[in-house]
Amino acid sequence: AKKTRRVTPLSMAWDNIKRTPKKTASVIVSLSLSMILLNGTFTLINGFDMDKYIENRAVSDFYITDASVVNLNSTAQIFNGVSKQLQDEIRSLNGITDFGSVYMMEMIHKFSKTGLENANRVCEEYKDTFKSPYTDEQLRLLTEEHSIISHLYGVDDFIIDKLDIVDGEVEFEKFKTGNYVIASSYIDTGEGRYYDIGDKVPIDFGNGNIKEYEVMAIGNIPYALGPQHGHFFDIYLTLPAEEFILQTGETGAMKTAFNAEESAIPAIQEWIENYCESVDPNMAYQSRETFATEFEGVQNMYLTVGGLLSFILALIGILNFINSVITSVQTRRQELAVLQSVGMTGKQLKNMLIGEGLWYTVITVLITITAGSLITYGLVMGIASQMWFFSYHFIITPILLCIPALVVLSVLIPVLCYRNMCRQSVVDRLRESE
What we know:
- This protein is α+β, with helices and mostly antiparallel strands.
- Helix content is 54%, strand content 17%.
- It has helices at residues 9-18, 21-47, 50-57, 67-70, 84-91, 113-125, 134-145, 157-160, 172-176, 241-248, 265-279, 288-331, 333-341, 346-369, 371-384, 397-421, 426-431, and strands at residues 62-66, 96-110, 147-155, 164-168, 180-183, 200-204, 210-220, 234-240, 255-260, 283-287.
- Strands 1, 2, 3, 4, 5, 6, 7, 8, 9 and 10 form a ten-stranded mixed sheet that branches.
- A hairpin with a 5-residue loop joins β6 and β7.
- α14 runs antiparallel to α16 (397-421).
């Protein structure tokens, strides 16, 4: 049986782009990549949550600490930079509602018998994570000296309520007696414990001063209140500030955190900024405002990098498309002249060329929305899955916004090529083959 179908400029356009599959694929891939990257960039930016970012970075309105603690390039951190005099001065400011300090010292913690057994079990269970050269010394310390690197913290009452507790409960009055400690685990969620609730933890304060504490809960101080570093295989032990000072001696705090009445925040911001810049440049402060600015900086960085890469790929794709259309028309001048000589009108020819451009747009958009969405998801999650302030949201708005530009490009370039070709008559173009 003989079957026929209606031939239109659009169907002829489809047949034409199928004649050069490699060239067609090249144009579509280059255009699709730019749109996928653009969509991925906006998906990433749209998933950044300022509230989550500030919540993690700021558990109070203000912090003040030695500049070496927040300066990641500092070679030696000072953990007692906030003097008692400065703490009293801050506490006396008008509008202060909550106030507390974190004290800290780095030490080598010698395990009890139970702690050593647990630590060895942790090493065996998570041995695949012990791959860096830095862990060799830590494992030697555990094996030969039965010890581990430790941060010992002392926290004021205001900070106790801010602790990240993953198991157990901090009973305020019992904890304040100075006979209890909060111990961390290898994994932040509570797995890989060196000590469990109820275990006895010996802490050596030096000069033969060793005291045992009972583990009240498993947890740690918030990252925002910490020294901004860790040792991979370590333990964090938290005591009440009074007990910490009693055992280690009077000292300055590592960080002081405080809240203020909303009406007083601008004045306090100005005071603390002037103090850190003019009175004692060795001190640094952070606030919700500085964290909001920091968050915007992170957003702008990803937007700039992603936008620039998208622009470069889009430019390559557009130039590739223009070159493809121009080359196609130039190499088919005689063929197009023959079509016109056997009855195809100029309008039909122009529509066929426009149809070829539109087919590029249709295929590009379909690929970007379908396969491109999966690629975008994998790309975005690969970058941001470990970011605590990121939440994935499916969006295709950037793709939809690109469609009008692609349509204009798909129509404009073929029309310009057609007009340029029509400067020569059909007869002249047919004679070019002779």
